[in-house]
Amino acid sequence: MQYLKDRGYVHPVASEITPRAVYAQRRQLIQGLALGAASAALPALAAAPRTGGRTPLPAVRSAVPGALTMEAPTAYDDVTRYNNFYEFGTDKADPAQRAQKLKTSPWTVSIEGLVKKPGRYDLDALMKLGAMEERIYRLRCVEGWSMVVPWVGFSLAQLIRRVEPLGNARYVQFETLADRAQMPGLSSNVIPWPYVEGLRMDEAMHPLALLAFGLYGEVLPPQNGAPLRLVVPWKYGFKSAKSLVAIRFVEQQPRSAWQATAPQEYGFYANVNPNVDHPRWSQASERRIGEGLFAKRRPTLLFNGYEAQVGSLYAGLDLKKNY
Ligand SMILES: Nc1nc2c(c(=O)[nH]1)N[C@H]1C(S)=C(S)[C@@H](COP(=O)(O)O)O[C@H]1N2
Ligand SMILES: [Mo]
């Protein structure tokens, strides 16, 4: 488990916060399970004392098919210091430097539109709608880099079922915080604020679509979209909207902030697709963050490697037109 060497991070296992050696063991076990070599349940593991000032968020390993990639997680420092969160600036280092004072409590998410149970839901209530799971997903940015992140959260579908969308709700729109007092990036007009994104209802209901509250066994750092964000692992990273404040059920396909900015470059679907180039660059390969400048680029996989799980959502759809 070479990739955990020199890393002092803690990880959640079976509702415990555990030291890195145990995490390494667990990854071996996951790999063993995948190979059919072992079928034992996770052993009971001792809790380790926490270090640093971060808040643990216990979780159990996800049982959703495809939710645990076998690839090595990207180092915590890279996951939390190489970010896109334009509300805090367009440089990759800006969010980590400028988002630390983001006020995430109190926090409410407004559930709106074509839904039986609209209203303002506070964070604590939202966190109780599902059981926290760890999911290790690849995240592929449209810019040509990728990471592997151990997220903590539960399927967005759990929230959606609870609020009971109406029959004519065909899409879900996500709106994220736009607060000039806290977010220096809003003074630039790179995209029309607030940042909005959307999914078709069946995409939003797919069990892999994650409502994330944490990563690496702890609550989300502000730069990664605290206190809650979307993670849609088969789509380019920009679909995974951070710091959500509203979830809206609508009939018409919503227009995302990136479509409004450059529709020829960023379509509504945004499925990771090595066969559809960005107008300004190839999407055939990607650079894994943390591997260094001389590492070989990896081939990008259709639907970011989640084709077996999500491919059927797009049967019959022209993926070149619907990029
Ligand atoms: N509100 C908001 N959400 C956002 C963005 C943003 O600028 N603002 N950037 C997106 C992009 S382009 C990517 S690649 C991912 C990055 O998530 P990460 O920094 O946690 O890796 O967040 C997405 N969500
Ligand atoms: Mo991105």
TrEMBL record:
<comment type="subunit">
    <text>Heterodimer of a catalytic subunit (MsrP) and a heme-binding subunit (MsrQ).</text>
</comment>
<feature type="binding site">
    <location>
        <position position="229"/>
    </location>
    <ligand>
        <name>Mo-molybdopterin</name>
    </ligand>
</feature>
<keyword id="KW-0560">Oxidoreductase</keyword>
<feature type="binding site">
    <location>
        <position position="176"/>
    </location>
    <ligand>
        <name>Mo-molybdopterin</name>
    </ligand>
</feature>
<dbReference type="InterPro" id="IPR036374">
    <property type="entry name" value="OxRdtase_Mopterin-bd_sf"/>
</dbReference>
<dbReference type="InterPro" id="IPR000572">
    <property type="entry name" value="OxRdtase_Mopterin-bd_dom"/>
</dbReference>
<comment type="function">
    <text>Part of the MsrPQ system that repairs oxidized periplasmic proteins containing methionine sulfoxide residues (Met-O), using respiratory chain electrons. Thus protects these proteins from oxidative-stress damage caused by reactive species of oxygen and chlorine generated by the host defense mechanisms. MsrPQ is essential for the maintenance of envelope integrity under bleach stress, rescuing a wide series of structurally unrelated periplasmic proteins from methionine oxidation.</text>
</comment>
<dbReference type="InterPro" id="IPR022867">
    <property type="entry name" value="MsrP"/>
</dbReference>
<feature type="binding site">
    <location>
        <position position="141"/>
    </location>
    <ligand>
        <name>Mo-molybdopterin</name>
    </ligand>
</feature>
<dbReference type="Pfam" id="PF00174">
    <property type="entry name" value="Oxidored_molyb"/>
</dbReference>
<feature type="binding site">
    <location>
        <begin position="86"/>
        <end position="87"/>
    </location>
    <ligand>
        <name>Mo-molybdopterin</name>
    </ligand>
</feature>
<feature type="domain" description="Oxidoreductase molybdopterin-binding">
    <location>
        <begin position="102"/>
        <end position="258"/>
    </location>
</feature>
<keyword id="KW-0732">Signal</keyword>
<comment type="similarity">
    <text>Belongs to the MsrP family.</text>
</comment>
<feature type="binding site">
    <location>
        <begin position="240"/>
        <end position="242"/>
    </location>
    <ligand>
        <name>Mo-molybdopterin</name>
    </ligand>
</feature>
<keyword id="KW-0500">Molybdenum</keyword>
<keyword id="KW-0479">Metal-binding</keyword>
<feature type="binding site">
    <location>
        <position position="83"/>
    </location>
    <ligand>
        <name>Mo-molybdopterin</name>
    </ligand>
</feature>
<protein>
    <recommendedName>
        <fullName>Protein-methionine-sulfoxide reductase catalytic subunit MsrP</fullName>
        <ecNumber>1.8.5.-</ecNumber>
    </recommendedName>
</protein>
<feature type="binding site">
    <location>
        <position position="224"/>
    </location>
    <ligand>
        <name>Mo-molybdopterin</name>
    </ligand>
</feature>
